[in-house]
Structure formats: structure tokens, C-alpha cells
């Protein structure tokens, strides 16, 4: 079993780390998969937080009409923004300003 596993992992690693260059941009399959996974996890986290807010927190608070939806939407977009920033970091993308210094 180990005789099959090591070459399999080595070939999978070489596929995930193989890079393609487009001008000054280098992209690998591993970067794209990491980016997609981070975005997916951000959506899952956002759904979980919204569910907890709507089912466990808001019913116990006395908030004016529309306020729970406003809070829920703000939290949703904040979690998605943070997830996007994490996804960009996981993919290894940097800004042009950080490369100049």
C-alpha cells in the first residue's frame, strides 16, 4: 500500500504545484483550489453566523423593524469580505505596491 501511496502523493503534489505564467502572473492549480476552498468556507461561515443570529440572538432582543435584517446583512458581507481577503492570501497573490518595496 505504501508503495502506491508515495508515488501517488508525489504526482498529485507535482500537479498541484505546477505553475503557469501569464505575463507577470504565476498561477498554480493548488492556488486556485485554495482560493476556491477559502471562498466556499467563507460562504459556509456566513450562512452559519446568519442562522445563529436569526434563530438564537434576534428573537431574544427587542429591535426596531428592519434592524435584524440590517445587522444580518452587514455581518454577511463582512464575513464574505474577510473570507475573500483570506482567499487572496491563501492563493499567494500580492499587490503591486508590496512588490515594489
Q: Given the structure, what is the number of helices? A: 4
Strands ordered across the widest β-sheet: 1-2
State the low-pLDDT regions, or none. Answer: none
Q: Label the structural class.
A: mainly alpha
Question: Can you give a write-up of this model?
Answer:
The protein has a domain at 28-93. It is 74% helix and 8% strand. The protein has helices at residues 2-17, 29-57, 67-91, 96-100; strands at residues 19-22, 25-28. A hairpin with a 2-residue loop joins β1 and β2 (25-28). The model has no long low-confidence stretch (mean pLDDT 85). With 101 residues, it is mainly alpha-helical. It contains four helices and two strands. It has a two-stranded antiparallel sheet. The termini are far apart.
Short recap of the structure:
This protein is mainly alpha-helical.
Topology:
Elements: H1 2-17, E1 19-22, E2 25-28, H2 29-57, H3 67-91, H4 96-100
Key traits:
single chain; 101 residues; mainly alpha; two-stranded antiparallel sheet; 4 helices
Amino acid at each position: 500500500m505504501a508503495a502506491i501511496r508515495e508515488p501517488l502523493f508525489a504526482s498529485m503534489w507535482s500537479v498541484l504545484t505546477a505553475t503557469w505564467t501569464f505575463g507577470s502572473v504565476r498561477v498554480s492549480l493548488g492556488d486556485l483550489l485554495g482560493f476556491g476552498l477559502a471562498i466556499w468556507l467563507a460562504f459556509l461561515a456566513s450562512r452559519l453566523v446568519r442562522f445563529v443570529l436569526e434563530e438564537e440572538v434576534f428573537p431574544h432582543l427587542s429591535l426596531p423593524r428592519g434592524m435584524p435584517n440590517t445587522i444580518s446583512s452587514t455581518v454577511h458581507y463582512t464575513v464574505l469580505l474577510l473570507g475573500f481577503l483570506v482567499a487572496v492570501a491563501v492563493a499567494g497573490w500580492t499587490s503591486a505596491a508590496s512588490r515594489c518595496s
